[in-house]
Amino acid sequence: MTSSRPAQAAGIIAQQIREIAPEGKDSARVPPRHDAEAPAPFLPDLCSVTGVAALVLMGELLALVLVLASDGLNPFNWQRLGLVSLTVLWAILPSAAILCRLRPRLARLSHKVAAALSYSTVLAVLAVVLLAQHWWSADMAGAPIDYWSLLANFLVGAICAGVVLRYAYVQQQWHNQQQAELGARIEALQSRIRPHFLFNSMNSLASLIAVDAERAEKLVEDLSALFRASLADSKLVPLEQEIALAKRYMEIESLRLGSRLQQEWQIDNLPAGATLPSMLLQPLLENAVLHGIARLRHGGTIKIGIREVPVTHKKFIGSGTSELLLSIHNPVADCEIKTGTYERHLSNTHVGNGMAMENIRQRLSAFYGDRFRFSAQPCDGEHGTEYRVEIRLPLNANTQTRTTEPVAAHSAGVAKEVGQ
């Protein structure tokens, strides 16, 4: 006769999965990316301070070229330079304002239609400005309008407008390509669950179903949260959520290593609203477990420190006065440090979710540029040789954040624990 206890445990776990993923959605399913729905801009933002400054500078250079081409350098005609500059700026600034308002609509059109509409808009403004300028000059001189001169100036302006619009278009498309490549780079460096970790977790789950259904439920919750965060799009997430996810991973590893794995969390002065890249702590912790604790017969303690500290190297971090310090210390065998085995494991083996140490640096660089600091090196600890990883991140990062429901539900407990 077979016992019904495993079946009951499996039913409880299935019910737990349905609770984690409401409305029939898989908790590990990748959520839709709303940012990908917005079309890429056709032209740069001409209403920004940088855009207006660039347009004014280009307009003044064009006016200078026109005056030098017509009147020469000796004597230089400053009065004509002023009049030409006024005409050029009257054509450039209204055109930029109109194109700025049309920018969202241009992004939804085909490139040919958007180019035709942009060029027609600039030509219309140019025609109105030149007509007003020639009418004013003719009225001041008491002579009729010189339409041939008007046509010549219009053709020169049309050619210059075409060149400037082409330049702006190429610059924006280059920027769009850079953003797409950066997004693809971050996605390629995004953490993925390692097969060995999945196999070990499933083995632990299989052994727990028959003897401890409650712990099996908890293991399913933790695995669901890890997979959801791993498969989701790469963004900055709240610090509390990342801590909760890292603690879930450590709970899974504790099932496999038992008392050999000890953990010590030191969370002080947690800054409000702090964010960091998703799945940043988990691969570093897995590296500490896989190449540190698991290789020691009696195990050891992994120390995780997270706190806000004053900025010591402003040239790297920026103008802020504080930064976020993440530190992970794990014991290692002395023989591995002396022979360099540990460093070879870090550089040659894919740690955590498919990322080596260099990939972690690249991922941080993709988010923060040169405003972060990353160090990983052996050091002397209280009970022998330790390996220390430290990451310093700016607290003023302006990147969009996201949340994942399974982790968010658990992060409230972590936030409460931190505040105690």
UniProtKB/TrEMBL annotation:
Record keywords: Kinase, Membrane, Transferase, Transmembrane, Transmembrane helix
Pfam families: His_kinase
GO molecular function: kinase activity
Residues of the Signal transduction histidine kinase internal region domain: 184-261
Record carries keyword Chloroplast: no
InterPro entries registered for this protein in UniProt: Bact_2-comp_sensor_kinase, HATPase_C_sf, Sig_transdc_His_kin_internal
Residues that span the membrane, as ranges: 46-69, 81-102, 114-136, 148-169
Region called Disordered, residue ranges: 400-420
Source domain of life: Bacteria
PANTHER family in the record: SENSOR HISTIDINE KINASE YPDA (PTHR34220)
Protein known as: Histidine kinase
Annotated organism of origin: Microbulbifer salipaludis
